[in-house]
Structures are given as C-alpha cells and as structure tokens.
Fold this protein.
Amino acid sequence: MRLVILGGGGFRVPLVHKALDERVTDVVLHDVDADRLRAVRDVLRDGPPVTATTDLDEALTGADFVFSAIRVGGLAGRAIDEEVAHAHGVLGQETVGAGGVAYGLRTAPVADRIARRIAERAPGAWVVNFTNPAGLVTEVMAKHLGGRVIGICDSPVGLCRRVARALRLDDAVFDYAGLNHLGWLQGVREGDSGNLLPALLADDAALAGFEEGRLFGGEWLRALGVVPNEYLHYYYSTREALGDDRGAFLLAQQRRFYAGEVDWETTRLEREATYMAHDREGERDTLEGGGYEHVAMALMRAIRDDEKTTLILNVPNGRTLSTLDAEAIVEVPCEVDARGARPLPVSPLPDHAAGLVTSVKAVDRLVAEGTRAAALKAFALHPLVDSVATARSLLDAYARRHPELAYLR
C-alpha cells in the first residue's frame, strides 16, 4: 500500500512514520523544501521504506492514501501572523482569530491546487487532512475530492479520553459537536447509563484531575453545562491569551534541528512540554493512543481493512447540525468503514455554541473566496476582531509581510 505524505519535511512526520503498520509498504515524502526532506528522512530508520521528492505529480502517482500536512509559509509565516496580530492588540494564535484568518488566506489557494492535482493524478486515493485550519482546508479540498477527503484533529480525542479517565469509564460514547478547534462535549454515556457529564461537572475534585477541568474551572464549566475543546480558551479568555507567541519559539527551536544542532527527539520533547504552557498549571496530560498520527492510522485502517469504528472527524455536515448547510465541514463523531466516514447523530448545540459556530463558519467561507473584499470581511466579522478599521490594517499588514498574500494587496 502506497502512502504519500504532503509536507513530508515537517517536524512531526517521524511520529507518523513510527505509527505505520506492516500493511504500508511504500512511503513517499513530498515537500517543496529539499533540505527539510533530507533532515526528516535521516530520522526515519525503522519501518517501511521511504522515498522523497519535491515533484508533486511524481509523489501522487499510484497513491492509495494521501496525508496532507503542509504549512504554507512555514513557521516563519506563523511567527509573522502572531507578530502582526499582537501589534494590533488582537489574538495571534495560528488557527483562532486574526492569526487563523491569515493562515487560512495563505493555505486555502494551495490546498485547492493540491486537491485538483490529487483528483487528476490519484482519483482513487483517500486523503486525510492534517493541515490547519483543518475545517477550512478540508472544506476547500472537498470541492474537488468530495467525501474522499476527511479532516482529523487530536484535540477532541484527547478531551474525550481525559473525561473518560476522570469518570473511570472503559467503553464510553461521546456526544461531541462543533467545528475544528471549536467544539463542545455535551454528553458521555456507557452502556445503558444516562448522561454522566453533569455528575462530573458537579465534582470539583474530579474536574481538577484533567486538563480541561483545570483550564476552564468548575464554575465556568457548570455555567456552560458542557466541556469545551481546549481551543475555546482563546474565546473565553481572550485577554489572558493575547501574549501567546508560540510561533517564534517553535521557529527558533526547529531551526536548530534542521541545522543539525540538536537531535529530533530532544526537540520533540521540548515542543510537547511547552504546548499551551502559559495557560496550564503543571505538566501537560499525555495519553497513549492520542496524537494526530494515531487518529490518522485508526482512520486509515478502518477504510483500508473495512474495520467499522467510531472516530471524531471533520466531514460534511449533512443534516447533523441544523444551523449549518449540508456541505459545511463539521467536527462530529462518525462511523467509519470501507465506504468512508458518515456523521452520527449528536445533540443540538446550545445557542451560545451555535452562534459561534455559525459566525466562524461564515469567516472560513470568506477566507476561501480568495478576494480582498472577502478577506476584509473575514477579519472584520471574526468574533475576536472587533473593528473594521483594525481588520483593514491587519489585512494590509499581512499582505505586505507575506509573499503568499500579494494577491490581496
């Protein structure tokens, strides 16, 4: 089985390679940066054989699965996103607010071109999208690939695992819904039990035992009546999160790896330990079976081997969330087998969540339009940017700083 990894020079590729099973016999890494490809390939010693190429058509030929994990503009682009946002007094996080809009504006046109090439060169391939902003990018690619592109994220998986552990459950069913990096856990059941989430929300000691419980606090979680994805921190605590400048840190850190100054494993451990560190108390929770690479492998096995399973994925809405149209990419539990992924029924979102989902989906679609007028509206209408004048200044600053956004000048 031939697996192609787009963005094959990315830092996290060794994690994906390590997770592959014996059925994957051929791995092709594609990247536009040959030096990064060489650095990553040198790390991959065990597992299936690997080839590397900067030629996209060569990489895609004969592909059975394509993992898309590109970063348009690299970490230098992310650092610029954060710097410009902070200079305007707004949030710079890479998938949320002004930073997310800028990242999407760079990425959507490239994702569109890649999806077209996959449809032409490997029409039978299944595409697993890692690329952020994952919901937006998956929706852009789905215009050419339909249901053969599925977006993944490890945040909902981690949340559900931590909640199950807090409730001491072994075989729980999760009622989770929203968009990528904008979702809420509304219910947890096991067997014939009713919803166990209210009991968890009432137990301060249990809430203090897992990451989201500590991040949001018992009072706020009880007020909401749900457990938000960790990325909702940027919406609920925007002022406190304004100093997030992880992009510059990662850029400096990974430059040392790609320059051969520090080994990959040391760099990885430092990266993991510092994730959202300014927002957390204590060490980050880690759970086996989480991580993008494990979600991707579970999805690939379910499709490839026709092993029916349930995963939280980014897929077309259909009739799942009544506030969105059928083509909108949503993040919900899905049944997966050889036919692909199909969303399962979920509870209706409460008004406060539905309002955010509707607003952010509208912004995503403006980003995907690819015009200056639409980009201005995307910045101005995002819930975390509160001024048309600020939106115009953001757009002009990003268009000046990013070569990829010259089309918006």
Notes: The longest strand covers residues 329-337. The mean pLDDT is 94.
